[in-house]
């Protein structure tokens, strides 16, 4: 006979599961074995596992270190339950023991359930998206428990009540998946009744006309009542009062009387205007909003005045009024509370340079580098007055980091006209240094090896926070060497003036190994695919950095919505690595619709530009064959181009970490001078060489057929069609930008070499080299400069569809798309070339300071396309300049730009508008 604990429910904490398991043993154990004379100690004959879903495999059984033939003991089973609970895989653990002389242990395990989907059913149209967003107890992808379902029902009722649905009824139904530890939640919702406002009254110290208050409210007599709408109304009323100077206004609902028979409700809103706070600024223009916010709550007057003076000085110094003087006062006149700031802004100055005096430890260049600015930027306004006044405290903090605890900085100015030189006089004081560093308590590593992991050195600077960072570095070092439970303390003793002795005390833990790897949660993904990303195997040292990298590798596959790694102790020197996975959706579909025209926009009347829709669609099936591969189909249909690409991608190639893909392409595209049709297949491989550097290679076969040619045939290297190409492309890129879509600083460089060779009887025989470098600078806050250099070289027999073209919003904005460079003498159409040289400069600055994402820009560009390298001449380079607006979006900037060609034929000026999404590339 076996018994099991009864008081366990799904979703209980691990400690509850542990207690439940132990309770079973207490109830079912026989009170023997204390006296050896009473009989032999029982032996475990069998260990059985019962899983609520599926069968318990050897991985789960490995978490229980009990084997047939082991002597039975309560401690042995208690340790097994603790390990199962520590894995985080189970919501309930029950242990049963037979009463036979030899013991049979039965572990009944209930997996944690995951919420897979949440749906709402109602006879009334409900805001289901808002309902789902307001659920905090249950969300898709989180753990499920019955008590969470009851809390979710209450949250839905509360939400409906806020939206004006009273007496609603909600019932949650959880449908368990028989094949996986997942549930689908359906909420059956009866919204209840709504009430109409029959009376809305006001009380309190209102002070202004009620009709002006009511204008700000959507809650009115005869309209449905919504508590959330009334909350918005209260906020609108308070904001209105604040705009009139009543910064401490309070509006509260003090009476709600429901008339159920009539289905109406009477409301009373109490409005207390409070003091009329008036902020007066005399002597200069500053934003009042930054001052009125200080006085919206009741604050200590001395603090409020000082805070206002500080904000004004900071604002004025940023504008160049370096020597402004601010004084303030408060005056009470009945209900009027007036705060007055008197400002003497003085003259406006430009900071010409910065001088440092009294430095011994750093050179000027070293200090400037540590502070993050360069002297050469001052001429471009690279430092503001606000920053100058904050530098003394910044420099003192920097010196303290290097052991100068008594460092002091004095700021003076040397004026010359309307320019000033900021002079920082430093009194470094004595440097606190470390005389000796000792590491004690180690046995596995030499002190010299551990000293190499920390920054503290004999003769180095003494700074207490740095010592704490060194402690963390040593802890991390031990974890990465497989040690657990290592304790490290640091102490410092002063030996003599300005010298200290530092001692790191180490209590080494145990080095542990990964005895078992338990993988759970995957349904489609193959075990071999997961193990391939781990880089840790059973029997390896449990190095934390390798384990954390394994987690990152699994996340980078893009097929899991959640990856958890838990270490479950199996003894003093062994752990089980439990990997809990939650697979993401495998199917994705996308559809996009836009507008395009076959020619550049040449009229302000947008409807006269032959606009036509452009449709893009994409279908993706991920985690193909359970090995993280992906099959995708992308299609585009528009006036200029029609294309379809079928791609198969996978993260590995023959067990090598090499992201690769095979693509089959069909396309038809209309260009300015020709139209072509192309079919091709390519093999692509991408290999990151470092954090910022990526190598990409492509082997391609393509067959291109010219459908129309609007230039003379003798302008085309290959007069026959179709044209076949076999090519190898190698591309190396180095990306140091702070943001790939909206960069402000950093750089991006790439070099691409393409070699088309006559293989398999094809006609191709040319080489192309394309180099690009982008650089971004921040000249001052919100003012940015960028430069883009592009060089393209070609040689050999290059058909027109392989030549370099330029012109348009992403290359040279002084010409329309593809129209820069040599042209056909008969048709005037561009023919492309074998040499491309382009240089672009852009300066962006704020358009309206209050709208941070909107900026203005001016640009200058120079370059051209040449038929061959021999045709290159500096005098043949064309110049363009222009201006525009740019709005930052998550997909890159939305650009409206106007380009002016300074070398237009006939000596005129060609003005070209562009509307584009995304940065220049």
Overall CATH class of the largest domain? Mainly Beta
The backbone outline, from C-alpha atoms, is globular
The percentage helix is 10-25%
- Please state roughly what percent of the residues sit in beta strands, choosing from under 5%, 5-15%, 15-25%, 25-35%, 35-45% or over 45%: 35-45%
* Name of the CATH homologous superfamily of the largest domain: membrane protein fhac: a member of the omp85/tpsb transporter family
CATH architecture assignment of the largest domain: Beta Barrel
Structural class: alpha+beta
Overall pLDDT:
86
* Ends distance: 75 Å
Written account of the structure:
The protein is built from 15 helices and 40 strands. With 921 residues, the chain is of the alpha+beta class. It has 8 domains: 14-111, membrane protein fhac (Ubiquitin-like (UB roll), Roll), CATH 3.10.20; 123-190, Ubiquitin-like (UB roll) (Roll); 196-272, Ubiquitin-like (UB roll); 276-344, membrane protein fhac (Ubiquitin-like (UB roll), Roll), CATH 3.10.20; 350-427, Ubiquitin-like (UB roll); 433-510, Ubiquitin-like (UB roll); 512-583, Ubiquitin-like (UB roll) (Roll); 736-917, membrane protein fhac: a member of the omp85/tpsb transporter family (Porin, Beta Barrel), CATH 2.40.160.50. Helix 1 packs antiparallel against helix 3 (74-86) and helix 9 (301-319) packs across helix 11 (385-401). The longest helix is centred in the middle third of the chain and has 19 residues, at 301-319. It is globular and about 110 Å long. The termini are far apart.
């Amino acid at each position: 006979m076996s018994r099991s604990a009864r008081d366990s429910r799904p979703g209980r904490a691990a400690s509850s599961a542990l207690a439940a398991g132990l309770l079973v043993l207490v109830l079912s154990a026989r009170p023997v074995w204390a006296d050896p004379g009473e009989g032999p100690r029982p032996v475990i004959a069998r260990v059985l596992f019962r899983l609520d879903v599926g069968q318990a495999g050897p991985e789960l059984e490995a978490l229980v270190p009990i084997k047939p033939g082991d002597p039975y003991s309560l401690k042995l089973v208690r340790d097994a339950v603790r390990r199962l609970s520590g894995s985080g895989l189970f919501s309930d653990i029950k242990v049963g023991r037979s009463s036979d002389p030899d013991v049979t242990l039965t572990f009944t395990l209930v997996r944690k359930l995951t919420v897979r989907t949440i749906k709402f059913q109602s006879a009334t149209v409900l805001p289901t998206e808002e309902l789902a967003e307001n659920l905090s107890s249950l969300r898709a992808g989180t753990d499920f428990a019955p008590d969470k379902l009851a809390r979710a029902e209450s949250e839905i009722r509360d939400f409906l009540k806020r939206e004006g649905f009273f007496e609603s009824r909600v019932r949650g139904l959880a449908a368990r998946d028989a094949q996986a530890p997942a549930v689908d939640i359906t909420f059956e919702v009866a919204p209840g009744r709504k009430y109409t406002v029959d009376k809305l009254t006001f009380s309190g110290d209102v002070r202004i006309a009620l009709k002006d208050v009511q204008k700000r409210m959507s809650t009115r007599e005869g309209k449905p009542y919504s508590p959330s709408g009334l909350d918005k109304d209260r906020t609108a009323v308070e904001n209105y009062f604040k705009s009139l100077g009543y910064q401490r206004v309070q509006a509260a609902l003090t009476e709600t009387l429901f008339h159920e028979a009539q289905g109406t409700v009477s409301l009373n809103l109490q409005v207390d205007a409070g003091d009329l706070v008036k902020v007066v600024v005399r002597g200069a223009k500053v934003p009042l909003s930054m001052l009125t916010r200080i006085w919206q709550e009741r604050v200590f007057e001395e603090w409020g005045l000082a805070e206002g003076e500080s904000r004004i000085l900071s604002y004025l110094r940023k504008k160049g009024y370096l020597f402004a003087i601010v004084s303030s006062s408060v005056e009470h006149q009945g209900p009027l509370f007036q705060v007055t700031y008197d400002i003497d802004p003085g003259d406006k100055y430009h900071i010409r340079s910065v001088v440092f005096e009294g430095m011994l430890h750093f050179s000027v260049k070293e200090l400037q580098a540590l502070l993050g600015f360069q002297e050469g930027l001052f001429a471009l306004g690279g430092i503001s007055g606000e920053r100058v006044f904050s530098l003394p405290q910044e420099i003192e903090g920097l010196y303290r980091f290097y052991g100068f605890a008594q460092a002091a900085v004095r700021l003076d100015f040397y004026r010359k006209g309307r320019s000033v030189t900021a002079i920082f006089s430093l009194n470094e004081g004595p440097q606190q240094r470390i005389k000796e560093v000792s590491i004690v308590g180690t046995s596995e590593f030499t002190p010299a090896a551990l000293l190499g992991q920390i920054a503290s050195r004999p003769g180095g600077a003494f700074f207490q926070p740095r010592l704490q960072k060194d402690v963390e570095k040593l802890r991390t070092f031990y974890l990465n060497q497989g040690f657990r439970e290592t304790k490290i303390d640091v102490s410092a003793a002063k030996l003599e003036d300005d010298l200290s002795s530092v001692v790191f005390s180490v209590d080494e833990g145990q080095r542990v190994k990964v005895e078992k790897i338990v993988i759970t949660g995957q349904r489609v993904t193959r075990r071999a695919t997961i193990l391939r990303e781990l880089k840790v195997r059973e029997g390896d040292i449990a190095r934390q950095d390798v384990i954390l990298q394994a987690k990152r590798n699994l996340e980078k596959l893009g097929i899991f919505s959640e990856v958890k790694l838990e270490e479950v102790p199996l003894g003093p020197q062994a752990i089980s690595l439990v990997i809990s996975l939650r697979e993401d959706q495998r199917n994705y579909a996308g559809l996009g619709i836009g507008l395009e025209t076959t020619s550049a926009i040449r009229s302000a009347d947008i409807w006269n530009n032959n606009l036509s829709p452009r449709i893009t669609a994409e279908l993706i099936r991920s985690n193909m064959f359970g090995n993280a591969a992906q099959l995708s189909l992308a299609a585009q249909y528009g006036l200029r181009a029609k294309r379809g690409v079928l791609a198969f991608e996978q993260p590995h190639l023959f067990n090598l970490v090499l992201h690769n893909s095979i693509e089959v392409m069909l396309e038809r595209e209309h260009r300015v001078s020709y139209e072509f049709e192309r079919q091709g297949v390519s093999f692509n491989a991408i290999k990151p060489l470092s954090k910022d550097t990526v190598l990409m290679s492509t082997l391609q076969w393509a067959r291109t057929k010219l459908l129309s040619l609007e230039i003379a045939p003798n302008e085309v290297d290959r007069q026959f069609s179709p044209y076949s190409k076999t090519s190898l492309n190698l591309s190396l890129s180095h990306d140091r930008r702070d943001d790939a879509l909206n960069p402000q600083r950093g750089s991006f460089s790439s070099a691409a070499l393409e070699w088309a060779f006559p293989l398999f009887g094809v006609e191709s025989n040319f080489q192309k080299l394309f180099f690009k470098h982008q650089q971004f600078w921040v000249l001052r806050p919100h003012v940015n400069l960028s430069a883009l250099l592009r060089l393209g070289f070609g040689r050999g027999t290059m058909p027109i569809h392989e030549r370099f073209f330029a012109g348009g919003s992403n290359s040279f904005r002084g010409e329309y798309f593809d129209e820069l460079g040599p042209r056909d003498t008969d048709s005037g159409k561009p023919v492309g070339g074998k040499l491309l040289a382009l240089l672009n400069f852009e300066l962006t600055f704020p358009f309206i300071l209050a709208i941070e994402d909107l900026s203005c820009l001016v640009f200058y560009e120079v370059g051209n396309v040449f038929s061959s390298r021999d045709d290159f001449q500096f005098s043949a380079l064309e110049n363009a300049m222009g201006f525009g607006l740019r709005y930052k979006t998550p997909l890159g900037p939305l650009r409206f730009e106007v380009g002016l060609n300074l070398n237009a034929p006939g000596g005129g000026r060609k003005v070209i508008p562009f509307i584009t999404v995304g940065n220049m590339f």
